[in-house]
Structures are given as C-alpha cells and as structure tokens.
Batch of 4 targets.
Target 1
Amino acid sequence: MDSNGVDEQEMKLVQGAAGYVLEDVPHLSDYILDLPTYPNLLQSNPAYSVVRQYFVDEDDTVPQKIVVHKDSPRGTHFRRAGPRQKVYFKPADVRACIVTCGGLCPGLNTVIREIVCGLHYMYGVTEVLGVNCGFSGFYSKNTVTLTPKDVSDIHKRGGTMLGTSRGGHDTSKIVDNIQDREINQVYIIGGDGTQKGASAIYKVS
C-alpha cells in the first residue's frame, strides 16, 4: 500500500525463451472478459492508407538494452506502442476528456490539439471534453467541449488552453465525476507527479 492508501498493483511479467522477460502493462482485457474488438477505422480511411504498413503486431516488444552480448539472456522488454488493426471501442460510444496538470512546459497545447484532432479525424470520435484547471476541475465541474475548430490554432500559443494547477486532489471525487459523466477515455497530460496521480485514479477506479 502506498502513501495514499492505495494498494500497489503487482507488475505483470511474462517469461519467454532464452531469458526473455516482458514487463507488461494493464489491459482492458484483464478486467473485462470476452472484450469485443472492432476493425480500426484507419484501415478504410484513404487519407491514412499508409498507416496500414505500420500496424503493430500484438507480440511486438522493444528491448530495454539495445546492445547485449551474443550469449547473454534476451533481457527485459516492453510492449511496443502504435496503431493496432483492432480497437476496443466504438467511436459512437466514446466520451473522452483531456486534463493538463502541474507546471507549464512547451507543447501542452500541441498535445491537446493532436488528441482532439486524432480522435475526431482518425477514429470518428465526436465527444471530447476539456477539464479546466487540473485535477480539481473534475469535481469543480469546470469543463469545455473540444472540437477540431476549438483547437485549430492553439499550438501557436504558450501555456495550456485548459489551465492547470499543482498540489493534491481528491481521487475518489475525480473517479466519481468520471463515472457520473460517463467518460470512458481520460487523457492526463503532465510530468512525474501528474502520472502518479493518474496511477492513483486508475487504481481507485
């Protein structure tokens, strides 16, 4: 149990031949039995036809160490990121939200813009909310609707259009608000402290 009273999750390790170890990440299928899949819409979108060459196989992994001795174990690997041929959501069912937390850094608005435009143009998602002023915005009910038009030129401006905040937050209130709003995709943008907060939200939810 960590300092927030949240049970630490055991790391998922997958053992393979010749000393291969995969430090895996949690997946929806770990919690939802018989999880349905759907074809990735990028496969039928002419504008993204080149993506078909770069779909990532489910068994693709990336080694922790680039240089190893020929007789040494294969070592630790991590799941490779990238587009899959199958997705685990229907665009019409997605209600996403984006939040920025912690200190400011270059590129926050660019990340917001790319998430909104990527969800809309690449995956057909039309419901995206922006949470104002960091984690506390979840239970302050400060949200804005985000469309490609709303974020069209924000990458030219500094800071974050959503605002941000530092400090603690009420994890249970955040989870309750996510559930009340029927949000099923949460994009949390920030540094180390923000990702610790994201991990706490994941564990409580």
Target 2
Amino acid sequence: MSLPHLSDEQIATWTREQKDRWWLENVFRGNMAQLTLRSAFTGFLLGGILAATNLYIGAKTGISVGVGLTSVILAFSLYRGLARAGLATDFTILENNCTQSIATAAGYMTAPLISALAAYMLVTGTIPPAWHLIVWLVVVALIGVLLAFPLKRRFINEEQMPFPEGRACGVVLDALYHGKGDEGVYKARLLGLTAGATALYQMGVSDGWMRLIQFKVLQLHRWAGLDEPWHLHERLDTYYYDLAARLQWATPRILGTDIRQLGLRLTLDAAMLGVGGLMGIRVASSVMLGAFVNFFVLAPLMIQRGDIVARIAADGTTTAISRTEIVNQWALWWGVTMMIVGSLVGLLGKPDLFKSLFRRKRRPVAPAVPMCSPTSRCRSGCRTSACPSASPRAPGCRTPISACRGCSRWLRSR
C-alpha cells in the first residue's frame, strides 16, 4: 500500500485549507486508537533506552543518530509477540507512530549533552550538578516544542516537505502493517539476531564483562591461575603489535611518526558499524576522506615541521603527541572552519528557503467543500464519524464545513 501524498502541482497551487480537507478525507482516521496509555508508556521506555545508546555514541564520536526506525520495529515486534501470546492486543499503526514520536523526542533530548554542555565542561573543567542538567534540558525541550508549532504549520501543513527520517518511519510502518504478514516478523527476528550477535561481541571485548564472567562466575583465577581476564581486542592491530614486539618487527611510521601517535588504529566497534550503515556511503566517504587527509597527510607534515609538538602541562609534566593533541593543536581549527563555512555557503545558496519563512504566499481561495469536523460534534451540530463523503447532503453531516464556524476555525488553526 503506497502512502497517500499530494502531487507537486497540488502542493504549489492548493491553499492550506484545501490541503487540510484532503488530509481529512484521505489520511485522518478518527476511529483508530492513537495516543493511548500503552503507546505513551512504550514510547517513554524505548526512548529512555535508546537515549542512553544515543548518548554513548554521541559522547564517543560526536554524532547523533536517529532512533525513530529502531523504535518502530521494536514496538511492532513487542506487541505482535504479546498479541500472539494472548497477553495484549496488537498495536495499531497510529499507536506505533505515537510511540516512535515520543521515543524520537527522548532520543534527541540528549543532543545538548554531547554538544554545548560537553564543550562547557571541557572548557571550565567542572561538571554541573545533575539537577542543573535536568532543568536545562527540560527548558530547552519546551522551547523546541513551542518552536515546532509554527515550523510544522509552515513546512509540513503548507509546504508538505517530506522530512527524511519521518518519511522513512512512515514507509516502514506502512510496510509492517499493510504489507505481507510475515514481513514484520522477519524484520523483528533479524533485529533480534543482530542484537544478540552484537551483544556477544561487545561482551567479548569488554574487560568488565569478562572479569565478571571469568572471575566472579567461573572462578578462573582460583583453579586456572589467571591474573587478568582474557578478552578480545577491540583494536585489531594490537595482535600485530604484540607479535611485532616478540619478533622485533618494525612498526609502521609516516614521516618518522609512529602511526599509533597519529591515532591510526584498526578498530572494530559494532556501534560504529551501525552508524556507518545508517550514515550511507555519500557521507561516510566524505568522513573517511577527511580523516585520511588530516591524519595521513597533514598531521605528519605538521609534526615534522614542528607545528605540532609535545605540550608542557601546568604541573610540569609533558603531554606526548597523540590524536587528542593533533586535534586540539591543529585539526580543530580547519575542521570547524570547513564545517561552518560549508554549511553557511550551502544555506545562503538557497535564498528561497529563507524567504519562505517570512513570505505569506497568495493563493486562490478554493470553493468550500462540505466536510465533517474532526471533533465528535461541534457547536453547529456537525458530526464526524458518519460522514462518508464530501457531499453537502451526506448522511450524518448536518452542516457544511464552510458554514460551520467551529470547523472553519479548526482548519485555520492547523
């Protein structure tokens, strides 16, 4: 089932009232459960879990990933399983949509923690109290919600812009609920298998998990004589350097600098594999090219020239050259400059986007089409559930929408 949408000509020529009427006729489902207690609770639960993962990835890489698609599939698989077990009814498509909206809001709420607040703590060297962070995040979230109303009215109601993540969630929801019955179950199983394999690998490279399993559970330090727990190396080149130390092999260098000082390590991180898959080849190739130019070419040259040197700390200790020092002494400046200038020039190259924010388009007023109000009954007596068509004499619809003051006011407010 394809998602209903307006054509480009309709978007350009129709008034907002016409678009709202089309939405009521073709999209609105007033008799389907939407914002329920279980959809809200599920959204809060999934949002909290996915926000923690988003915070981890953001703190590690500075990248914020969307959680909408993940929450859609998780909520679908959860309630489909409960429905098959006879413990709950299946989620409706609108309940799932509410769940992913709540989960997405919670996931993106961690963005200030990996940007502005992280920079503040890095510069000042102090960590604010937890309640300060909570209040600040709540205030920022409320401001964002208030700003969302005019933006939604302009870009979604009027311009009908298909936001990439929201549209992707809509396509997945449509495929899960209106596609083949086994398709959603297959995707849920694939998600579960991927999650299990990822969890096993991350446990294998985690010193904490291996210490818990080998020392606390299996007691290997008593009967096997282990001093340190065995675990996989997340940095795969560690195996080479261990072998090179025993066989006295040379370590790779670029212009006399050990590549380990440049931060060039072959690391297998499951979370970063997922980020690369979501990022796509177009963005990932640009990121890879920037890393190559900086750490393979420019950083070794700057170290050889003496522009990047070991730093003397305030206590007199020497801070050796590392990836952090390369970023702080050199890469930070050209990298941030390219990000800001490139973004601004790209935005300024689309002046119509800014003009549309402040320009009120004049469009021909369409003739009034009788329809029912989305409310159960307005003051003029217009019902919603029993009006199957847009005819002025449709059964159950007493008042045309053009003559219904409550309906017209609702349409203008959208």
Target 3
Amino acid sequence: MSSGEGKVIAVRWLAMVLLLVCGMLSARASAEVRAWFDRSSVSMGETVTLNIESATTEQPDFSALEKDFRISARSTNTQVQIINGAMARTNLWAVALEPLHEGVIAVAPITVGNDQTAPLSLAVKPMARGSAAAGDDVFLEVEADTTTPYVQQQVAYTVRLFYAVSLLEGNLDDPSGTGLQVRRMGEDVNYSRQIGGRRYNVVERRYAISADHSGSATINAVSFRGRVAAGGRGGFFSQGSPVSTGSETITLDVRPVPASAPQPWTPAQALRLSDNAAQLPAQVKVGDALELTVTAEATGLSAEQLPELSLPAIAGAEVYPDQETRDTAIVDGKLVGKRTRKFAILPQQPGTLNLPERSLSWWNLATDQAQRSILPARSITVVAGAATKVAETSTPRADSSQAPAAPEAHDAPIVSPGYWRPLAVLLAVLWLATLLAGYLWARRGRSEPRDETDPEPVKLWRPALAHALTRSDLSAARRALLRLNPKSGDLHDLAEALEDPDQRAALQALERALYRGDSAEGVVEQLRNAFARTP
C-alpha cells in the first residue's frame, strides 16, 4: 500500500468517527429534553396540552409561550426506571394552553436547564360555531330574541351551558361587544335536557343587551373553561381534566330612531302611566297639602331609561316635587323599569283647583309605532281655611265696661248672682297682673341681650331641619323652615321676613330645587351653612 493510499484511508476513517460522534451527541441532546403537543391542531376556545420530558430537575422557562397562549394549568410527574442495573429518572411537565389567535403558531425552543426543546408548530382553527355535535361532553348555545333592534332597545340574550360530565369547576364568560350595553338579568337557572339519547345538565343565564348606535353590532362569542372529574384530555392533571367550549357570535342590525318617534326616545314593549288622583279628596282647604303620586312602568326598559316624571304649573297652587324612586325588576325574563315621584300640591286660594291632563309619549315595539299614555284631568274644590273664616266673620263683643244685660227669664244663669262681684274683682286683678307682666318683660327685653343660643323657635325647627338635611330630603327641609314663621304661607313669604341675605338666597335655591327637581346636594350644603346662624 502506497503512502498516498494510506492517507486516503486514514481520512475516511476519521470522517466516519466524526460522524459517529456527532450522531451520538445529537442523540444525547434529543434524549436530554423532548417536547410535543397532544394534538397537532385545535380550535379557538379549546385547550391543548404541551408535554416536556427531561432528565433534569430544573423547571422549563414557559415565558416564551405567553405571547401566543393563555396558560391555564400546569402539572409535573416524575418517573423512575431501572435500566441495565442503573436508575434513570425522567421528569414530565404538562401545560394546558389556550391559543390567543387563529393560524399556525410557531413555538420557539423552550429552555430547560442547559438544554432546549426542538421548535414546534400548532394549527389553530376558528372557534366551532353553534351547538356541539351529539355526544359532546360540554357545549354552549346562545340565542337573541331579535337581531334587528332599535337603538337602546332591549335584546334578550340567553346563554345555555350543556354538560353531561361531572364538572369540578368552571368559568362562563359574559357576552361583550363594541358599542353594546350588557346587563345580567336575575340568577342562573339550572335544569336538565335529553339530547340525542343523552341526559345533559343545563345552566341558563340571561342578559339584556342594548346598542348605543345604529348599524352593525356584534355580540362576541361566549367561552366556557372548566375541569371535569374524569375522562377528557390531559391525563397528567391530578385534579381533573381541562375542558373548554365556545358559542357562536351573533350580529345585530341596529335600526336608528324613527323620524316620527317622540322625544325623549322611549322604546318599550309596554308602558303604563298611573297616579292616585282619583283617591285625592274632592274638597280641601287653603293650605292643606295634596300628595299626588305618579308612576311610570315599562316592560323592556330599565328605570334609568324612563324619562323623568314632572308636573306642569297649576294655577292657584304651589307644586313641590319630592325625590324620585327607581326600581328595575326581572319579570318573565324581561326588564321591567319603574319610576315613581310624589308631588306636594298646596292650594293658595279658594276656588277650583284643576289638575291638568298629563301624558307620556313612547314607542310601542309591539305595534312599531308611537303611542301616548294619558292621565285624565281632575278638578278639586278649594275652600277657605278655618283661620280665614275667623278673620272674615269675627266681630268684637260688647265693651266690658257696659253692664251685663239682664238674663231672660227662661235662660239659665251662667253665674250665680251672689258670686258675680267677687268674680269681677278676681278678673280685674288678673288683668292688672297681665299688664304688669307684659311691662316687665318688655323692659327685660330692652335691658338684657337676647340669648340666641337656645331660643324657643330653635327647639321647634332646628332639629327637624338638621334631620332633613342629613337625609337630603328637601321637602322635609321646607316643612322645618316654615316653622320659623307659621304665618308664612310659603318660602317666598318667609324669605321676605328674613334679614340675612345668605338665608334668603338659600330659601330661593330651595324653592327652585323643589320646583324643578334639581339635585339636592348643593342646596343641602347651602342651607346648612346659611342656617347655622339663628334668624
């Protein structure tokens, strides 16, 4: 063998040794850490399990997964084997991942200690639409009572979760969408249903959804994620297997407010306007308060969507609106909003008090046209009060200096004739004592400063005013302040009797707020500051 041939053979042998060493190193690297998905493709809303196997005890770095997946659960399992008399330890990590987007997701190598996994890929398909096929363990169903609502019209949206396995835990998302107002209605309803020969438990949840603007609006798919007690994928999880499913999306074609619709826009399936005018007395006196209660109740609207209740000016009377009460209930799967307001009506003069006709215009969704709910007019007779009658009809009695007329023979004597002189003396003494007491009291009032810390009027009105302001009750505050001067028929008269400009301004603000139904917050603070001083 020549020297040249020997060199060639040596090079070939060296190359073979190098290839063998590289293969052994590669095999060792792949044996050190291995990664795989339990499925090659999934749908949006489903989870997939990523398995990582390694001989090292160091934890894998899963941070690279967070941009493409939501990590919902993790589990670790350790296996020990005896191979050719030597103990081999293998650690297995299982991670439940939910894709964040559709398409082919490329998973970069994951670092485990000093090693890295091979790159992986996962195909993610769109979320399965509609109810799952017969035999699925868990699926969702959604429906809307209309897909062509008006702006602000209530859409009854129902979500039903069907499951035929034992759920350990779960989370059902609420519906959402751009430009949509979503309100949950009532509590979950639980029942069972037979589907395809299989018994399913059902959780039904209801929502009221309304659109802020006309045009196309999408109610996004609803997702469910949970764990089942047995079966399903992901056998590495000791606390059950993960399960998830999703619903279909629903597109709404939202119609604008009709041109012929009355304002404010009030779309309802039914609306009832009522009051207690029929229960009010047919006749009252001047100054006696009448309490009129008006209620608007609508099906398909919340209380906040109903227009504010008001009462027009009434000739010959003052009107003071009380604070409004609002209530929204769920009746037969629909929102029922109720708005109630009380009005204090104070007649100011004798005659006929006419409650005018009151109405509320709204859009009837059942007939798809405008409608008007009307409260009829009511007339009430107002007579003069007792104090007015006394002022008009009373006349002075005969002068006390005149001798009393002799009683008629048939009249019984009021006082026995033998006692009238002592009685007259006693009355004269009492009269003189009254004059003297009045004189002394007047001098005391001029010589001594008035004690303004606890005058008698304060005992009557100040606690009542403080209590009313604490509750932000403007009607009660008005009643308390009128105690300052019982002769004042209204706040206007009381304001004219006061000298403090801040107190007069506070009374004017109170009167405006009562009439217009403004917020009580600013008026309460103004009254509290102004009447911290005794008038």
Target 4
Amino acid sequence: MLSDKQLLALADEIYEVALDPSYWEELLTSLTSIFRSDFVGVITQDHGSGFCTWFHGVGMDDHDIVRYATYYGTISPTFFQLQVTGVGDVITDEMHLNRRIYTNSEFYNDFLKPLKLERSAALIMERNAHDQTYLALRRPDRNHYTDEELQDFSRVASHLYRAIKLQRRTHFQDRLETAINDALDHVKSGLVLLAPDGSAIKFNKEAERIIAAHDGVYVRGNRLYIERSSCLVDASRLVNGDCSTNPQHPESEAVAIQRPLKRPYILFAYPLGRNDGNTAIHSGTAVFITDTERNHNLTTETIGQIFGLTPAEARLTAALAEGRSLQEYSDAANIAISTARSTLKSVFKKTQTSRQTELVRLVFSCTGSTN
C-alpha cells in the first residue's frame, strides 16, 4: 500500500496536470509503475452511444485508442456494468455479473487478449446526464488486482478527479479570456485597462494602433500617458482627482486630446469596482480612446440587413447617413428625384421614422461601439 509520503508526492504530480495538461502522459506513466499496469487511462464515454469523447492514456498506441474509442469501448461488457456502478465504486474483471459472458465476448477475445490486457480495474469518478468519466487500469491475465492495490486506486482516483475538475475550470477560464480578448478587439474605440496602481495591463487592437501613431497617446514603461497642453499626463490620474477636470465627480472623465493636423482623440476614463459606493477604493481604470478621424459608418449591406431594406433603399439610407442630401444622392445614382423621394418614403415606413434627421439619428444609434 502507498505510504502517506508516497501519496503526497503522487498528489503533487496529479495537481500539476490541473495547471498544465502537458503533464498527463508523465502522470499516467507514473501510475503504470505504481499499479504495475501496462495501461492506465482516464476516459469519458457517452451513455447512449458508448463513444469516447475524452481519452488520456498510456500503454496503447494511437491505432488501438481509436479502435477502443469508436468501437470496442461501445461493446465492452465493462462499459455496460460501469453504467450501473456507483460513483466512487471500483469494478474489476472478476466482478462481472457473468464472467463467462465477459471472457467469451468479442471485446475480450479480439481486443484485450491480443494486447495482453485481460485484467482490469475501473472506478467511476464522475457521472452526469450525458456521460461518465472513469479511471481504468489494465494488465496481463497472470496477476489480478489485490485489495491493497484497489484501496490505493480509490485514494489516487479521488485526487485525480479533483485535478480534472480544476483543469476544466482552468480551461474554461482560458477560453473565457480568449473570448473576452476577441470581444475587446471588436470594440471600435481603443480600450486600455489600468491596474489599481496605474500600470497598463490590457490593450485592444485599436488602442495598439492609436498608441503606435505617437500623436498624443503614449506608453512609457508600462504606463499610459496622454498629451495635454504640451505636457504628458499619466492617464491613471484622470479619475483620481488631481488631474481631473471635475474632481467632485470622479466616476468618469472625458478629455479631448488635440492633434496638430487631425481631429482630436476623445478619451473617456472610468474607474472600475466602485459599485459599493466607496469612491476611495477601485479595481483599476478603463480608458476608452476614440479616433474621430476614423469612419465608423455602417456598410450599406449592414444597413439593409438591420432594417430589412432593399439594396436601393439601403444605398439611399447610407448616403443620407454620410451627410448627402436627397438631391445629391439622386444625381450620383442617376435617378429622378421623384424616385428617390418614393424610395425614402419606403425607408421611413420600414424604419418607423418620419424625417431624414430622425432616420440619420437611428442609423448612428445602430453603429454602436463594435466593428
């Protein structure tokens, strides 16, 4: 039986897997040695089909893993018995309800025997409405698993299950972070997140583009600076009162950053984490930077899609949103002004507007803040 010291050392290996999935093979190789097994695997199988939806194992080559995952695992007597076994319970090849049926099965004779993996032990670690996850050991027929080994098997499986749950949570967090980064890159404004100490910790793509232009917004070290009255100001100080234009209301700050040859950047800074009413404590700052030189108008295709307009109606709406008059549009489109007016009436009806200014305001309200 494993000593407490051995189990503790093994637990360190197990929880490394939770942090770094690349350690799976190393961990499972250690388990083959501890349990004197030729194969160790962690497997998730679908209840209905029996197909393996997740498989980490050592002791089988890729070809045999595919054979098990797509066919032999689905007809295995062990798979069917595991479905009625309690979570945390161990089942061995000797515990099958009908061992003769087991040893005469296609799974046993055509898959296990050629691989010399007749002896088995498995433990259900998790079961939900769709599938079950279990730890499996297999070795040649000459040695069955002892009671002491099965006790160790249960102890190890409990740690492994916790590690798998942690890995899933970590994996979810990784995917969530990737999704958030993708979402931030669709924000039309530049976005910089500042830590409570003022250091910049996140930039979206638009912010990186603005900073790379070196015309009013800069990064020095790991801090964000903006140019005001020919001086560089730390952007984190905008919402802390000392550089605020409105220190009585530090919940936000708006600043125009002038540029010599272009329209200004518009910067909005918002302190984060002040929902508890304590304005002295915050979790950082969100800095939005809008480049007023950039054209953020909706495309003709998008306008048509949003409002259900015909291509002609969408082209007219886009032209009005760009500031052209109805006459200018009809001239450019080489159509009669009466046709343009008729088209506009149809647009008014579909967009539930009645005036051009109202229509343009509606279009601009739909541009939102994303690309």
